[in-house]
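Saturday, quiet lab. Running sequence design on the structure tokens for the scaffold JK sent over.
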């Protein structure tokens, strides 16, 4: 019954509070910020970050997610040169990680939408029935990205050792025995407030024989911001405009 209430809430308004995270095995805050609890309808990893100091925004430290690692031995597996899947949703209940996927759909809100879902009007306005999509249509959607650090310990991950890879390059080397630390990153482009996402994962690269090393960009932070915000109010994004083309980022190696 609780779930029915939750989905209704997502569907009828309260859209400003509906945000999005990447759900997959290996995620921090998989069951919420309290490692002794396993909340099947957690949305703790979903709340965005904006204009916080590094100490608060880094891997969602503001809500304690950086201190809620996955169970030992559970990793997000990254096949070198291959692909992996995460589920973008507003709540774990809307993913296959809860309730055998009973409340999951092809869309983050667990509802049904047309393949070419768009906002009203022509040209389309922002999508109204799920503001957390932060877009008018598919072509206006800002890309999301994954980054990897070869530090197993999340507290050892720094701006300098965290590298955006987006699509898995074949040359990604294997991780240390206790895995790597990955981050899901998204800076939505318009259709709502400016906000950003940086969500933690324990991850490991599988099937790699590479010994190459990675060389290390990060907007919308109160400190250490190395991207200047455009004065025209445009949104910084993981898109070709900002040096992130679709496909594997093969230029990340030293
Ligand atoms: C997507 O929406 C934008 C903004 O309304 C519009 O300019 C563009 O033509 C739309 N693209 C498609 C493929 O409909």
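Result came back. Writing it out in full:
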């Amino acid at each position: 019954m609780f779930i029915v209430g939750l989905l209704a809430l997502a569907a009828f308004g309260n859209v400003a509070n509906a945000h999005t995270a990447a759900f997959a095995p290996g995620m921090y805050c998989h069951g919420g910020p309290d490692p002794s609890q396993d909340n099947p309808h957690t949305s703790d990893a979903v709340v965005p970050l904006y204009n916080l100091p590094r100490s608060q925004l880094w891997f969602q430290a503001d809500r304690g997610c950086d201190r809620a690692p996955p169970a030992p031995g559970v990793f997000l597996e990254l096949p070198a040169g291959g692909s992996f899947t995460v589920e973008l949703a507003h709540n774990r209940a809307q993913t296959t990680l809860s309730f055998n996927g009973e409340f999951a759909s092809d869309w983050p809100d667990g509802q049904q939408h047309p393949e070419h879902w768009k906002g009203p009007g022509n040209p389309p306005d922002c999508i109204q029935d799920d503001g957390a999509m932060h877009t008018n249509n598919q072509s206006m959607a800002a890309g999301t990205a994954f980054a990897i650090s070869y530090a197993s310990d999340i507290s050892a991950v720094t701006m300098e050792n965290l590298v955006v890879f987006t699509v898995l390059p074949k040359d990604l080397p294997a991780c240390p025995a206790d895995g790597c630390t990955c981050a899901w990153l998204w800076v939505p482009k318009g259709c709502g407030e400016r906000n950003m996402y940086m969500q933690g994962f324990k991850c490991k690269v599988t099937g790699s024989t590479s010994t190459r090393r990675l060389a290390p960009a990060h907007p919308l932070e109160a400190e250490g911001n190395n991207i200047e915000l455009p004065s025209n109010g445009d949104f910084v994004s993981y898109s070709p405009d900002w040096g992130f083309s679709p496909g594997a980022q093969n230029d990340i190696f030293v």
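Notes for JK: The CA atoms of residues 26 and 71 lie 8 Å apart. The domain at 18-106+128-253 is CATH 2.70.50 (Coagulation Factor XIII; Chain A, domain 1). Ask whether to fix the surface positions before the next round.
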